[in-house]
Amino acid sequence: MKKTWWKESVVYQIYPRSFNDSNNDGIGDIQGVVQKLDYIKSLGIDVIWLCPVYKSPNDDNGYDIADYRDIMSEFGTMADFDELLAGIHKRDMKLVMDLVVNHSSDEHAWFEESRKSKDNPYRDYYIWKPGQNGGPPNNWEAFFGGSAWQHDTATDEYYLHLFTTKQPDLNWENPKVRAEVNDIIKYWFDKGVDGFRMDVISLISKREEYADMVSPVFEETIAKQYANGPRIHEFLKEMNREVLSKFDIMTVGEGPGITLEHGLDYVGEDRDELNMVFHFDHMFLDMGDGGKFDPIPYSLVEFKDVFNRWDEKLNGKGWGSIFLGNHDFPRMVSRFATDGKYREEASKLLATLLMTMRGTPYVYQGDEIGMSNVAFESTEDYRDVETLNYFRQLEADGQNPQDHIHNAHQMGRDNARTPIQWSDDSNGGFSDSEPWIKVNPNYTEINVASQERDKRSVLNYFRKMIQFRKEHPTLVYGDYESIENDHKQVYAYRRWDEENEYLVVLNFSDQVVDFTPIITGLELLAYNYDDSTEDLLMRPWEAKVFRVND
Ligand code: ISL
Ligand code: CA
User: Fold this and answer.
1) Is the CB of 143 under 6 A from ligand 1?
2) Is the pLDDT of residue 518 over 80?
3) Is the CB of 63 under 6 A from ligand 1?
């Protein structure tokens, strides 16, 4: 595979609202990030992915953009942004922005024009349809509940919004919209930005027949009717040709519905589309037919299968991204491991996984200190529009949302959005004022300051493993093969090239497991307990990385 910087990078994702508040108004901001650049650099990070900081009324925390060339006033100014970018480059890191162009805010000037009249020049920037039989044009549902169509009185038509009513979908069939998007991308590249994470890029090409959804399972509707539309690859190739290919940047497309079947179409090295995608095969394992708030158990074997199948599919043809959490999902340690007695060991085990797989690792803010899910007592404490819509829906169905709060505890997006726990000062050192969302009460126990002082902390283990990946390039480019696939507690895999071979063994359980693979000549290089031995009697949540000598 071609060698390039973004394959060798470790990415750190920042959700600015929850990262660090510099002016004590309770909301994280750009200067807050500037203040922590040395911290991020100290982790060994190469690339920062910054979630949206553009002007936005914040119906969906910045994923509803009102001006793609301006900064959200709560976060600061364009001068703050320029300072941030310069500070990142000065430290020899790169900055990737979020590109949210499946939809804009309904407060974007384009939409304000578009809704005025049927012959407005911006009408076709969005997707408008007349109603049917006194209702919406079809039965499509929005990701966050309710109809995906909103009636607008000015012209007595409906507009499509796959997310909230304040996130109207852009009409990519219109070449003017595509040209606008290319101009936006170019604007940020000209400023020196190093790439884009592309929000729900899998959804931009619509199936023009707008046929009714047929499956009661939303995930199927996404895959068959919303995602991977007929012109998606034409649109991405055009974007690549017009702008992306002219800069030394990285791209990672996000998308529900990007399954194994479609992955390579987006990232194949011969495709000239995107560098990487975030697929959700492992992120949807614990979701039942009712979706996110209908969680179901899953097994380690299924989890391993996802990674195995994707690695095999991309092998030699395209590059993967390795992530276990982001701002849309629960905390990785609570979800894929355990946040009980073995929380620290488990966090370190997941760090070992992230840094030893093939593909670019993405670290979500706070995971480097082992932050865990939060269980707010009251529905009032929740802020995320998806979770609030869920509560509203329950109420509309005659139920008491409080009786279902455990689903928000387990699956809600706010789990990942509580403020970063910098210290055991009030509000976790995030802000002197009351934060926009409550701090996880465990901040007195889990915080950056105390972990800085402890050389055995999760934080220092993350640093060590990031360094470890860089010292062993075989872990970046080498082959991957999982062994003993049917083992229910242990995830073990080999990474190798002509010169080196490694074996990674991860005990995903609370039990001691006697794991005896057929491999000999093992030399222990890294491990997550304070001391360790070459044997494979794996303690709970123990992780070991060996060199295999022949
Ligand atoms: O969390 C999800 C559904 O329960 C995901 O499917 C998520 O909605 C999907 O991955 C899209 O996420 C992205 O686009 C959304 C935004 O709310 C998310 O924060 C963003 O990451 C709409 O812009
Ligand atoms: Ca602030």
Assistant:
1) yes
2) no
3) yes
Distances (CA, A) of 39 to 439, 459, 463, 512: 20, 11, 11, 35
Computed on alpha carbons and rounded to an integer, the radius of gyration of the chain in Å comes to 23
Q: Tell me if 170 is assigned to some domain.
A: no
Take residue 430 and report the two structure tokens written for it: 């995030």
Judge whether 472 lies within some domain: no
Residue 74: domain span: 5-104+175-461
Number of domains in the chain: 3
- Domain assignment of residue 167, yes or no: no
Structure tokens at 195: 């790439």
Residue 25 lies in a domain: yes
Same domain? For 334 and 410 the reply is yes
Among 461, 495, 520, the domain-final residue is 461
99 close to 199: Cβ distance less than 8 angstroms: yes
The pLDDT of residue 285 is above 80 = yes
How much is the average pLDDT of 446-453?
98
Whether 345 and 373 share a structural domain:
yes
What are 296-326's pLDDT values in tens digits?
Answer: 999 999 999 999 999 999 999 999 999 999 9
Residues 6+ apart with CB under 8 A from 546: 502, 503, 504, 505, 522, 523, 524, 525, 534
pLDDT band at 516 (very low <50, low <70, confident <90, very high): confident
Write out pLDDT tens, residues 100-149.
999 999 999 999 999 999 999 999 999 999 999 999 999 999 999 999 99
Same domain, 195 and 283: yes
Asked if 498 and 536 sit in the same domain, the reply is yes
Q: Is the pLDDT of residue 517 over 90?
A: no
Nearest listed ligand to the Cα of residue 389: 1
- Across the range 398-421, mean pLDDT stands at 98
Q: What is the CATH number of the domain that holds 154?
A: 3.90.400.10
Instruction: Kindly report the CATH number assigned to the domain that includes residue 329.
Output: 3.20.20.80
- Side-chain half-sphere CA neighbours of 172 within 13 A: 24
Residue range 326-382, pLDDT digits in tens? 999 999 999 999 999 999 999 999 999 999 999 999 999 999 999 999 999 999 999
In a shared domain, residues 141 and 182: no
Residue 190 CB burial class (10 angstroms; 0-12, 13-18, ≥19): exposed
Residue to probe by mutation, ligand 1, list 61, 197, 199, most atoms within 8 Å of CB:
199
The Å distance, Cα 35 to ligand 2 centre, comes to 12
Is 318 in the same domain as 367? yes
Looking at the DSSP bridge assignments, the partners of residue 251 are 196
Residues 289 and 386 in one domain: yes
Q: By CB neighbour count within 10 A (0-12 exposed, 13-18 middle, 19+ buried), where does 261 fall?
A: exposed
CB 386 within 8 A of CB 411: no
CATH number at residue 535: 2.60.40.1180
* pLDDT of 170 over the 80 cut: yes
Q: 408, 427, 461: which is the final residue of a domain?
A: 461
pTM for the model: 0.98
Ion ligand 2 nearby residues (CB, 5 A): 21, 23, 25, 27, 29
Closest Cα to atom 7 of ligand 1: 328
For residues 87 and 150, membership in a common domain is answered with no
